[in-house]
Design brief:
- 2 copies of one chain form a homodimer.
- By secondary structure, the first copy, chain A, is an alpha/beta fold.
- Chain A has a single domain, classed as Survival protein SurE-like phosphatase/nucleotidase (Stationary-phase Survival Protein Sure Homolog, Chain: A), CATH 3.40.1210.10.
- Helices cover 25% and strands 27% of the residues of chain A.
- Chain A is built from 6 helices and 13 strands.
- In chain A, the strands form 3 sheets. Chain A has a 9-stranded mixed sheet, sandwiched between helices.
- In chain A, strand 1, helix 1 and strand 2 form a beta-alpha-beta unit.
- The radius of gyration of chain A is 20 Å and the shape is globular.
- In chain A, 52% of the residues are buried.
Chain lengths: 260, 260
């Protein structure tokens, strides 16, 4: 008797023609029934943007051999929403986003279009993983990243995870065979220090390019920044409940005279 | 001897001409030195988007009497980043975002441009609050919301909060004098159930409008949804560390054979 193959929804934020999503499809193609719904153009830095004020386009395309694929005019989060409502006929068993060209560890989780697609899936009750390689290059080598993807996806399918499981996986730039392993981590406390590049346009008006420098303030052990530096792929489980329960206790005490 | 007045940075996601930001400025104008840096157009649903691929514009405008004001071509998060790097001469003591025209309670925290500006400030170490009124109407009545703003901002300035303090405040639609009070809450476990409205354009091609229905799956006490329904303003402390520590423990055990 044939077993039902798990349905794997794939998306990204670099656009459907990026090498990273091709690597992701290749890494899991044999593990289930893959369906791709991805943006028709790059969406980096879109955070968890959704498209409310303008309509969306959705077109079937032939990009990955033997894989049902759709391109969407919206954001990564839009792709997951549209896939769920208009394309998938059953609930996906897993949603994968990436492989992003560039890091999404630590505070980048908040700005990342890759992670927003994965978050959207987790909100929908589809266990999901966002994958990112620490190489912005269009021609980055995804060989090592693909082995990490295959290994983690096999694990996720072997032991089905709670429906809201959401993992932020980052892969360091190392030669094949030199990856130290996989580490379960916490999000490093870090930020971007912006320094806008101010220029003058041909009509004499100022404009600004955002440029930033990543600053890690977190020197304690166990962070994703540390694991990546040590040559490991980092896995950070991410929550969709943003409540700060410690601060909640503080406020309940501090404001007990006026708040219930 | 004159005391230094606290510097309050104000932004929003409905754009600098929205009535909500005007109400916010009015509510706190007497409490400190207010500086407004807000988007020049509506940015609802922008999540934590930032502008990387195109340049930003920033122009001084005269919108609020006696208040230094700037409009920016970017997202709410861009506004905070630009304000910090190019406009504020000292670190702001507080950042306020809103008052949003429409709810940002529960899962909306993730999609909200209003909250992304507040989050960006918290990442920068500026205690911040996002305010939202449960009324999408352009002509919404902000009378009650303004009293909540004034009260909370006074409290925040009296007892300076930890630098990463971030509050998501939602205000129900009630007549003046009928607000039950303020409740410290947790984020309700809820989601949007999308049902895309499929149409055909004049050239015969399909397009889709996102429409959704808010579904609260959380029937346990203590949520923001419950407080708002009961006529209270809800205050949810929000974290910028998205690590799911419970899931981290689970994975460390389940994957102990292959992950460190």
């Amino acid at each position: 008797m044939e077993q039902r193959r798990p349905v794997i929804l794939i998306t990204n934020d670099d656009g459907i023609t990026a090498p990273g999503i091709k690597a992701l499809v290749e890494a899991v193609k044999e593990l289930g029934q893959v369906i791709v719904v991805a943006p028709d153009s790059p969406q980096s830095g879109m955070g968890h943007a959704i498209t409310i004020g303008s309509p969306l386009r959705l077109n079937k395309v032939d990009v990955f051999e033997g894989v049902e694929s759709w391109q969407c005019s919206g954001t990564p989060a839009d792709c997951v929403k549209l896939a769920k409502d208009k394309i998938l006929h059953a609930k996906a068993d897993l949603c994968l986003s990436g492989i992003n060209h560039g890091a999404n560890n630590s505070i980048n989780v908040i700005y990342s279009g890759t992670m927003s697609a994965a978050m959207e899936a987790a909100i929908e009750g589809i266990p999901s993983i966002g994958f990112s390689l620490l190489d912005f290059n269009f021609n980055a080598d995804f060989t090592v990243a693909k082995t990490v993807v295959t290994e983690l996806v096999k694990r996720m399918l072997q032991h089905p995870m709670p429906v809201h499981t959401l993992l932020n996986v980052n892969i360091p730039v190392v030669a094949p065979g030199e990856l130290k392993g996989i580490k379960i981590c916490r999000q490093a406390h870090a930020k971007w220090e912006e320094d806008f590049d101010q220029r003058v346009d041909p009509r004499g008006k100022d404009y600004y390019w955002m440029v930033g420098r990543f600053v890690n303030m977190d020197k304690d052990p166990g962070t994703d920044v540390e694991a990546l530096k040590d040559g490991y792929a980092s896995v950070v489980p991410v929550t969709i409940d943003f409540t700060d329960f410690k601060m909640k206790n503080t406020l309940e005490e501090l404001w007990s005279d006026f708040a219930h």
